[in-house]
Specification:
By secondary structure, the protein is mainly β. Helix content is 0%, strand content 51%.
Length: 98
C-alpha cells in the first residue's frame, strides 16, 4: 500500500482584518478569517487546522465543513500561520498583518 503525501499547497483564500476596541481594556484587536483549499485542485479542506506559530498557549482553530476558519481577539501585530491536514505537508504563511 502506497501513501502519497501531497504538498499542502493551500490558499488561505480570504483574509478580512477588522479592528475594534475592547470595551474592558481599550486595546485594539483584530481577527483573521479565511478558507483553506487545495491550491492545485481547488477542493475545500474541511477539518484542516490553522494555528498561530509560536503562540503560548497555542492559539488555533479547525476549518469548518466549508473550509472556513476564524481566529479572533488577536492583538495588533504580525503573525505566522500554519495550515495542516492529514495527508498533506504543513504550509506556513508568514507576515500576516492584523
Amino acid at each position: 500500500m502506497t501513501f502519497n503525501v501531497q504538498s499542502l499547497r493551500v490558499l488561505l483564500v480570504i483574509f478580512f482584518f477588522s479592528f475594534h476596541l475592547s470595551a474592558q481594556e481599550r486595546r485594539p484587536e483584530g481577527l483573521i478569517r479565511g478558507s483553506v483549499i487545495d491550491a492545485a485542485s481547488g477542493q475545500i479542506l474541511p477539518g484542516a487546522t490553522v494555528v498561530i506559530l509560536d503562540s503560548n498557549p497555542v492559539n488555533g482553530t479547525a476549518a469548518d465543513s466549508r473550509g472556513h476558519f476564524l481566529l479572533e481577539h488577536l492583538p495588533i501585530g504580525r503573525y505566522a500561520l500554519q495550515a495542516s491536514l492529514v495527508g498533506y505537508e504543513p504550509a506556513v504563511f508568514k507576515e500576516i498583518i492584523v
